[in-house]
Give the backbone structure.
Amino acid sequence: MHRAVRIVSWLYALAVYAFIFLPVVVLVLFSLQSTSFPIPPFTGPSLRWYEAVLSDTRLTSALVNSLLVASISSLAAVTLGFLSAWGFARFVLPGSALLRGLITLPLTVSYLIIGMGLLVLFNWAGVPKSLLAAGIGHVVINLPLCFAIIYSQMGDHQVNIERAARDLGAPEWKVLLLITVPVMAPAIFAGFFLSMTFSWDEFVISFLLTRFETTLPVEIWNLLRSGLNPKTNAVGSLVFAVSIVLVVLFELTLLRRKPA
Amino acid sequence: MNPVANNGPGRGAGRALPWALVTPALGWTLAFFVLPFIAMGLSSLTAHEGGGFALSNYSQFFTNPSYLQAMVNSLQVTAIVTLVSVLLAYPFAWILAEQVPERWQRLALMLAVLPFWTSYVVRSYSWLLVLAQNGVINRVLTGSGLISEPLQLANTRLATVTGFVHFFVMLLTLTIFANLKQLSPSYRKAAADLGAGPVRTFLHVVLPLTLPGIMVGAFLTFVLCIGDYITPQILGGNNELLMPQLVMMQIGRRGDFPLASALSIILMAVVTVAYLACARWLKIERA
């Protein structure tokens, strides 16, 4: 009985792993195709499609745009999130629960609707489509996330150290920079990295709010019009690699700190 | 949990400091989330031609059968995806939490959600490689002589559902795994002491205790799935439209912002109703 459960479990787990990895393996394998169609039989390995990606200035500039939008919008989101989390955790504010609810509200709304709203507003206000507009949208989706993560980690421990610093004569700004920020660093990193990955991956807001200069997911979307193409496989594999690096960095910087 | 109680502002902090801290975030949310939402609401109440006040954008939804059909399609696809994903992910998460040795669990879980981090657009495209007319599955099936003509797999509802399930199985495995690990082993020991076998323990103890967690995961799946444009657009094609595709079509082809706004608001209303139902269910469950 016990053994049968074990065998069935293993088979089931293997089947699910196969399902999860099937598209990724196909993607990466056929990015190494040497002929022009990413379909069986496999004719590689060859790096010609990676060369094609790296020499395509539209793709490389979209990649730079994506990194810029992701890092700047994440920095903005984590700064706003941290300051507000500190304010709400440290001070008694009237209507605090309601205001905190307001900040986290965008978490419950789909990206499509956030993007649509900004499109309508910017259209009325005469704000042109741009990377800046998309970046504003990315802060909207990531700010509640950063706020929620950092707010949930603010506790008595940190309050006591802050009070000690203040008793020793530190002004507020010094308490903030020299005490609160370092103590809260893991939560701040978590918010920043998560925002980076979400912004790096985000499609629909960027699609609605940018025009000529755009981010990588939108540029990849444009590539899809040419149908199945090993170049798309190559750029997809590169994006996957970048995301994996981000995730591994996240694991290493954050989870290693906690005592096992 | 919250340190507010015995911790007034520091000396010299004044009244201004706390507001200076929270105002930027509140202002951002008001300016770029609440205000756009109001703009969208107003836009949905204006006529596309002429610009006067009109309810026509909403009445169109209820009178045009193809719009209603898009909502029905969306709800059906989302329901199927949510159900299939939960049914696939629960046993998988259970195996990871109970059958895999403790020291390998972290690695096993990380592996299970690795493709979660591929880009959204790329993930759907990858499924296209697998499901296309001359894609991997059709090549394997025709090559082995199982079928003579390639199957129509891409541009179908099945393809959309497959792409969605792939993503949500990973998401739900994460949430259900966390849920199972939080269960104190003493519950299981108590059930065993009282004479329950492993099957009864699972059915009467483990499953009911993890049900609220499953509901939260299922709700998350519902919300993310019903609002997604990429997966149905790439994998389902234009054979049958889902709501997000319908919204994007109004913007792209026709530049009809008012109608797109109205459709978005209707979509959001449906999600809100689902949220309230879910919250109510959870409250009843806890009481």
